[in-house]
Structures are given as C-alpha cells and as structure tokens.
Amino acid sequence: MKAALWLSAWMGLSVVPSTAPAVGREPPETAPLPGGAATPGPRKAPGTEPQTALKALEMSRAAVKAAPDDARRREAEVRLKDAETHYQAARYADALHKADEAWALLNPPQPSNFTVEVDHDGGTTTVTHRQGPPVTVEAQHATRVLAKGESVRVQQGTVLPEPPGAPQLAQPADKARLTLKPSSGAGGLLGPVTLAWAAVAGATRYEVEVVSEAVEGGAAPAPVRSVVAARQWTLPALPAGRYRWTVTAVSPEQGRSLPSQTRRFELAAESLELNVKVKDGWQK
C-alpha cells in the first residue's frame, strides 16, 4: 500500500481493499495501516438483511468489473445478474448466495498494492480510487465499493450518501422485435438501434451493457458496453438475434446504482420481396 493513503479519523472514514475476503466467509485478520489504524474487513451481518445482500452485490459487481473479459467473467456475470434479479424481488438470501457464487468463480488474488487519494475541502472529504483492485470505503458504518477511477464525497458527521436510483428504461419496449435492413458494407449486420432511458438525479454518466442471448449450442459473443453522459445510446450494427440490456447510473457523489431492470429485444432482417416475370404478367 502506498504512503499516499491517508485515513480521515476525524470522521471515521477508512479505505481498504475489497477483493480479499468473499462475502459470507470469515475475513482474514486485519493488518495495520499507516498511523496504527486497522483495516476493518467486511462485516457479516446476522441473518440475510437487505444491507448484507446489497454489500455482497456491490463487492461481486466490482470484482466482475475488474476481471479480464474471458469465459470465467462471463459466467460470473450470469450469476451476478441472477443475484440482482433476486435482490429486486426482495429474495435477499438467494441474492447473497448468487453474489457469493460470482465472487468465488472469479476468486481474485489477494491485492498487495492500491492507491487512493483523499482530499479535504472544509467539511467535505473526497476519496478517489486511482490504481489497483476495487476498494471499500466505510464511514459511519456505511460502505461503498469503488472501482478504479471512481470517487465518493462524504460530509463531516454524515454517512455515505445513498446510491442513485436504478435507471428506468424507455425504449425499445421489452421483448420488442425490430425488423431492419442490413447495413450496407457491414456484412449483413443490422442497425441502427437506439436505447433510451430516463434521467437519474445526481448521475453524470450511464454504463450500458448489451448481452447476446446465444442460440443453444452456440458460443455467446462478448457483451457490448459503453459509458455515455446522455440518456440514450445508438448501438453499433449487430447480427440478427436476441439481446438483453441494462443501464447503471453513476454519480460522482453517490457512487453507482443497481442496474436497471433487464429488457430484451430481437433483431431480424427485413425479408426481400422478389417479383418474377411469367407469361401472363408479374408474380410476387
């Protein structure tokens, strides 16, 4: 851990790597930080409460985001999607179980080095994660997981701000079948398709993910992802098939929201109409 890490003891703020212990497992013994402060590992709350399941989701989501784009990550993404579905349906025990499965599947190594910046501005402290695996920020017993490049702002004497609400998807409608002409020069790919959603208060950007639902026996292509500031995104041309998509809101002060509810759509090529000339006229 680099010496650039400071702890804000005056407001009970601490920053620790979040990739060491998995949710639902006993954390390792804590190691001292500069200045004699201890690194508190994630607490395992009694019972399966919403806060416990939410923390498991946050930590597993951060681990998935930091993992390389390979088959293991894609499998972990499926488990994480299941966990989010259970959480939205208030099945917190199932959400915790699936989030822990996603974590265990990735099984990231114990981090040895990370860098965060802690800046004070009057009664406000901002923590920015600059390098290394995801870290957990804790203030007044509330936690937030930060991936590389993310930050959170905390006012003195307050808990971490609540995350922004999940975006509400607008278009296309769920299970819409979109019939399109193949793009010229794009090898028969279909487009354009524009995804749109409602604005989320406090959010400055949105992370969009589109996943192909592979045909049985076929290999699923890598998900299509983008980070945009607008409330819509036009997809690149895609092959015909079925897709699902979600949007996550990101706020510089509140962190990341839960992903939106999943919507699905199908892309199909327009059929060509052929006119054939016969003896008595034209026939379609």
UniProtKB/TrEMBL annotation:
Residues 1-22 form the signal peptide. This is Peptidoglycan-binding protein LysM. Residues 32-42 have a biased composition (Low complexity). It comes from the Bacteria. InterPro entries: Ig-like_fold. Keywords: Signal. Residues 19-50 are annotated as: Disordered. The keyword Oxidoreductase does not apply. It comes from Corallococcus exercitus.
